[in-house]
Design a protein that fits this description.
By secondary structure, the protein is mainly alpha-helical. The protein contains five helices and four strands. The strands form two sheets. It has a two-stranded antiparallel sheet. Strands 2-3 form a two-stranded antiparallel sheet.
Length: 153
C-alpha cells in the first residue's frame, strides 16, 4: 500500500524538525550524512520513510563536550580543567542522535520555563528560617512600626 501525499508531507515535516534540532553544522551536512547512512544500510531506492529512519539514527559530534563524552568543569589560565563527569547532553558518547537532541530540547525548554516562573514570582522567600528567627523578625517589625506610627491595636 502506497503512502498518500498527506503522509509524505508529514514525514517531510518530521525530517525537517529532526534536521533543525540536530548538532549538524549545516542542513547540507545533515542531508549528506543521512544519504551516507542510507548507502551504508544498502537502500538503493530509498523511500521517504527510509530517509526519516536514517535521520533518526545519524549521530553528530556533541557541541557541549566536543566529542570527549566528559564535560569540562572550568578553565584555569585559559586551559580547560576537568573532566567533571559524563556529558549529560550526549550521555557520555561524544555524539548525539535525534533521541538525545529531543531530550535536550525538552530539558532546555523546561529550564527556560522554570527561570521565567522564578522571575515572575519575584525574590525568593527564606523558608529555612526557623520559628525563633521568624518570631524575632516579627517582634522587630512590630517594635519599628510602634516607634514609627504609634501603637496600633
Amino acid at each position: 500500500m502506497g503512502k498518500t501525499s498527506k503522509d509524505i508531507r508529514k514525514m517531510r515535516e518530521e525530517y525537517k524538525a529532526i534536521r533543525s534540532r540536530s548538532q549538524a553544522p549545516s542542513p547540507a551536512a545533515f542531508d549528506a550524512k543521512v544519504k551516507a547512512a542510507l548507502v551504508t544500510l544498502g537502500k538503493k531506492n530509498p523511500t521517504p520513510a527510509d530517509f526519516l529512519d536514517a535521520a533518526k539514527v545519524v549521530r553528530f559530534l556533541c557541541k557541549r563536550c566536543a566529542g570527549t563524552g566528559r564535560f569540562v568543569t572550568g578553565t584555569l589560565n585559559g586551559v580547560p580543567t576537568g573532566p567533571g563527569g559524563i556529558c549529560y547532553r550526549c550521555n557520555g558518547y561524544g555524539s548525539q542522535d535525534d533521541a538525545d537532541a529531543r531530550r535536550n530540547f525538552g530539558a532546555d525548554n523546561h529550564a527556560i520555563v522554570r527561570g521565567v516562573a522564578a522571575m515572575l514570582r519575584g525574590p525568593a522567600t527564606e523558608p529555612d528560617l526557623d520559628k525563633q528567627e521568624q518570631d524575632a523578625d516579627d517582634q522587630a517589625a512590630a517594635a519599628f512600626e510602634e516607634r514609627s506610627y504609634g501603637r496600633r491595636d
